[in-house]
Design a protein that fits this description.
289 residues; globular; single chain; 13% strand; 43% helix; alpha/beta; seven-stranded parallel β-sheet
């Protein structure tokens, strides 16, 4: 074998070795909020990497439909569960179902959240002065308590097994406060102006600290815990809103829904085996400014 052929063989071997670390074959990954826009993309990424995503959502029929669509698209096995992340009994029952079906859960993606859309119609209830305790509690129950309960149940199972991964889906707005000027609408009085509610940043910031806490708590149990902070995702928002938001983003655009796939696979796989307690920021550079 000449030198050039030897070099190419070495490169091919290195490439194969690196890519194997991203392989999720045989791993069961629970995606909460799996019927939502990003939840579906997270599950799709797991399937494309060879894993078995289980889409868990309080909307069980929607989760099943999404799982079937992903299975058809990727040719991989998928699963679905009806689960209320804010109810520990529901989460525990979901784990029991998965253990009966698959014997193990290898990873959890805490993605479930209530994220009311700021649609510019005059959302006075979203303003801090008028934000109700009921709305506060409802959103905290899903976005933060839900992540706590799922980590407690699924993470506890993984810790007992001696290995596993948790990925908490936070947001760039867990690192910076929302710029409420982005949501302003002409013709509305100040107290009628729509705002991003206080719960969103509080929940996402809380997920970042939950990540650090669990990463150290389970460090000797083989469970790695990391977070991802996506930026704004394009989902048919108005041109006016998109224009105002992208002025804050160095890359000059919002993210496409599938641009977080590789990050999720990285965090769920052995490619990130020496990474825990970290926060992967993928926001087009927004938090640099």
């Amino acid at each position: 074998m000449d030198a050039a052929s030897s070099l190419m063989t070495s490169i091919d071997s290195l490439h194969a070795s690196v890519m194997r670390r991203f392989d999720l074959t045989g791993r069961v990954v629970v995606v909460t909020g799996g019927a939502g826009l990003l939840g579906r993309k997270h599950a799709e990424a797991i399937a494309e990497a060879g894993g078995l995503p289980v889409l868990a959502d309080i909307r069980g029929d929607d989760a099943s439909a999404a799982a079937e669509a992903i299975a058809w698209k990727t040719g991989s096995s998928t699963g679905a569960l009806e689960m209320d992340v804010s109810d520990k009994d529901s989460v525990t029952a979901a784990l029991e179902q998965l253990l009966e079906r698959h014997g193990r859960v290898h990873a959890l993606i805490n993605n479930a959240a209530l994220n009311p859309k700021v649609d510019g119609k005059g959302l006075a209830p979203s303003r801090f002065e008028t934000f109700s305790v009921e709305a506060w509690q409802r959103e905290i129950d899903v976005g933060l308590t839900g992540a706590f309960l799922c980590a407690q149940v699924f993470g506890g199972h993984m810790a007992e097994a001696g290995e596993g991964v948790i990925v908490n889906v936070a947001s760039d707005l867990g690192l910076i406060a929302p710029d409420q000027r982005i949501y302003r609408q002409p013709g509305l009085r100040e107290h009628e102006q729509p705002t991003k509610p206080v719960t969103y940043s509080v929940i996402k910031g809380g997920l970042l600290m939950l990540t650090k806490y669990l990463a150290t708590y389970w460090a000797t149990s083989g469970v790695r815990v990391n977070a991802i902070c996506p930026g704004g995702v394009y989902a048919g928002q108005s041109d006016d809103f998109v224009g105002r938001l992208t002025e804050h983003i160095p890359l000059g655009r919002m993210a496409e829904p599938d641009e977080y796939k590789a990050a999720l696979v990285f965090l769920c796989s052995d490619a990130s085996s020496y990474m825990t307690g970290a926060n992967l920021v993928i926001d087009g550079g927004r938090t640099c400014w």
